[in-house]
Amino acid sequence: MNSASLNRLRKIYRQPFFDLIQRARAVCREHWKNGGVQLCTLLSIKTGGCSEDCAYCAQSVRHSTGVQREKLISVEAVMKAARKAKTGGASRFCMGAAWKGVREDDPRFASVLEIVRRVSVLGLEVCVTLGQLTGTAARALRKAGVTVYNHNIDTSPEFYPNIITTHTFKDRLETIRQVQKAGMSVCCGGIIGMGESEEDRLRMLEALTKFDPPPESVPINCLVPMPDTPLEKQPPVNVFELVRLIAVTRIVLPRARVRLSAGRTRLTREAQALCFFAGANSIFYGDKLLTAKNPGPDEDLILLRELDLLPSSVTARPVPSQFSAKSTRRDVPAIP
Questions:
Q1: Is 28 a catalytic residue?
Q2: Which of 4, 249, 299, 335 is deepest in the core (most CB within 10 A)?
Q3: Considering 23, 28, 40, 50, which one is annotated as catalytic?
Q4: CB of 82 closer than 8 Å to CB of 117
């Protein structure tokens, strides 16, 4: 598939490596003058037993991974984790539940709303990922105190059916539309290393650039091959391909936080430093990401200190646009 926007993305992606990352670095410095790296903590509040068939996920009941179905954890347990995250320097607290989506009449959803109300008073940005949403559920989450909803598109529209068949790419976009209508920001990115092509990665990015308004944050995940999932034998992502994608994301979505997300345990410290140079300015912070391992908090703080990068506060924002808030699309520069 060819389009003007896709051709422009190809042109950016395929320029000489050092030219690309220097350009991305300049864009990051222009739009994020306060610098720093946002620390986000992710907590699984309901693990396992998901009815979806996502090929990468250990929590799907369709894969015999040994991950046990668990109940929604208590408010007290969540609050303990949230306070620990804040004390450790996190400015955003993300909560994930292994659900296909939200049913407004489910008592568990009422419990999640209460959890959100409690966490929101701590002064943390509150992010949740609960699967598909209706407009009613989205408005309820916003009213309870959710500021950001995470719902990744995962990959390109074309490659998507190779990874997930229990819901469609369009279903993902519909949830994102409801989130934006309710007034929440969107955290949306994808996963690389699932067997997709370079073209698929650029098509995924093209889809993200068409959001109106653009996503507030873009997680770039490297597949963590989980045992007994269909993708368990996928090889590690080429580091330079990862850096290229981060750089292009920074250039075409300059006001988004670009999060270096899952898969950092397979990256060297030097590889992570290159990702930060290319425009990543957010990480997940904590020992665990849902069911996957993550670098330890002390390890991350040491790395950031050695790179002279400071954890950014909850108030850190991109440099204000010269345009009004009503003209969100004009915050996104034309892709040269």
A1: no
A2: 249
A3: 50
A4: no
**Gap between the Cα atoms of 19 and 129, Å rounded:** 36
Total Cβ atoms within 10 A of residue 233:
8
Q: Check 28, 40, 127, 275 and give the catalytic one.
A: 127
For the chain, which residues make up each domain, given as ranges?
A: 11-310
Can the peptide bond before residue 213 be classed as cis, meaning omega within 30 degrees of 0? yes
For residues 292 and 73, what is the distance between their CA atoms, to the nearest angstrom?
Answer: 18
Q: What's the pLDDT tens digit per position in 283-310?
A: 988 765 655 667 777 888 889 999 999 8
What percent of the chain stands above pLDDT 70? 90
28, 40, 54, 275: the catalytic one is 54
Q: What global pTM score does this model have?
A: 0.88
Band (62; pLDDT cuts 50, 70, 90): confident
- In sequence order, the 6+-apart residues with CB closer than 8 A to the CB of 281 are 28, 32, 35, 36, 37, 38, 257, 258, 312
Active site residue 275: no
Q: Exposed (0-12), middle (13-18) or buried (19+): which is 20, by Cβ within 10 Å?
A: buried
Task: Reply yes or no on whether 188 is catalytic.
Answer: no
Pick the catalytic residue from 40, 57, 222, 275.
Answer: 57
Q: How far apart are CA 99 and CA 284, in angstroms?
A: 21
Choose the catalytic residue: 187, 188, 222, 275. Answer: 187
The SS3 call for residue 3 is coil
CATH topology of domain 11-310: TIM Barrel (3.20.20)
